[in-house]
Design brief:
The termini are far apart. The protein folds into two domains: 80 residues, FAD/NAD(P)-binding domain; 144 residues, 3-Layer(bba) Sandwich (FAD/NAD(P)-binding domain), CATH 3.50.50. Strands 11-12-13-15-16 form a five-stranded antiparallel beta sheet, with no helix packed on it. A four-stranded mixed beta sheet has the order 10-9-8-14, covered by helices on one side. Strands 5-6-7 form a three-stranded antiparallel beta sheet, with no helix packed on it. It has 272 residues and is α+β, with helices and mostly antiparallel strands. The radius of gyration is 23 Å and the shape is elongated.
């Protein structure tokens, strides 16, 4: 294009930022010209568009210094120890390289990538599975609504009774729960993830100490995970366990959805 050359520095392993790192299979609804488009397609289209101009991509490398030169150019040094000289520099920093907000619970660090993940890379991996999602933002709510039509059962837990996600999406979530399409548990949070070589159990507790109740999900397969949780395949005779001050007894997630004792119904978002 007009004889220009371009080098692109990207701290991520692949182009696309959060679209590629967090939700490549998620539909995007607010891009002009597309009623809806998958995130990975939204990334692929501009990459195909610039391909004829032979841009040079440097992945997993970020700029560290930018210094003006006497001839009017700029010298950029990078984390890889390289230097690039250019007459124009465009900074598109965004929010920087994606780093998940990791869960603070027993067993989480040890079992990451062994049945617990922070991003959905392939929605089809959850078809016919039982899925537990932890979170209350747009990502958690959107994935709960998306996976309910693929998974055998979806449970979403959040530590508060209200959600940070878009109001209209939250209303869709609550309507889906009321229709028995998924299960909502609030206010609950993760206490522990158990297992040796892979996720075996996950324990959640009520966020209000006065009503502390623990529920245990017992997975029977090594699974990929949701944005803030994990999945397990339906297994004949499988169940979860409810643990309180009384002896443990078997429990299976209800379908249609029902709430454990002490659970507060989520609050609908008001329009306007």
């Amino acid at each position: 294009m007009r004889g220009l050359t371009a080098r692109i520095l990207d701290p991520m392993a692949e182009a696309g930022g959060q679209l590629s790192a967090l939700y490549p299979d998620k539909y995007i609804y607010d891009v002009a010209g597309f009623p809806k488009i998958r995130a990975k397609d939204l990334v692929r289209n501009p990459l195909e568009q610039v391909e004829p101009f032979d841009p040079i991509f440097f992945s997993e490398e970020h700029a560290e210094t930018l210094a003006p030169q006497e001839d009017g150019s700029f010298l950029v040094t990078t984390s890889a120890g390289r230097s690039y000289r250019s007459r124009a520099v465009i900074i598109t920093a965004g929010v920087g390289a994606f780093e998940p907000r990791r869960l603070d619970a027993e067993g989480v660090d040890r079992l990451e990538h062994k049945g617990l993940e922070y991003a959905v890379r392939n929605a089809e991996a959850y078809r016919g599975k039982r899925v537990l999602i932890i979170g209350g933002g747009d990502s958690a709510v959107d994935w709960a609504l998306t996976l309910k039509d693929l998974a055998a059962h979806v449970s979403l837990i959040h530590r508060r009774g209200t959600f940070r996600a878009h109001g209209a999406t939250v209303n869709r979530l609550i309507a889906a729960a009321e229709a028995g399409e998924l299960e909502l548990l609030t206010p609950y949070e993760l206490k522990a993830v158990l297992g040796e070589e892979e996720v075996r159990e996950a324990v959640i507790v009520h966020s209000r100490p006065a009503k502390s109740v623990a529920w245990t999900w017992t997975p029977f397969w090594r699974s990929p995970a949701t944005s803030r949780g994990w999945a397990r395949s339906p297994t004949e005779g499988s169940n979860s366990k409810r643990t309180a001050s009384r002896p443990t007894r078997a429990w299976k997630p209800a379908f249609p959805a029902s709430s454990p004792p002490g659970t507060s119904p989520p609050t609908r978002a008001r329009s306007g």
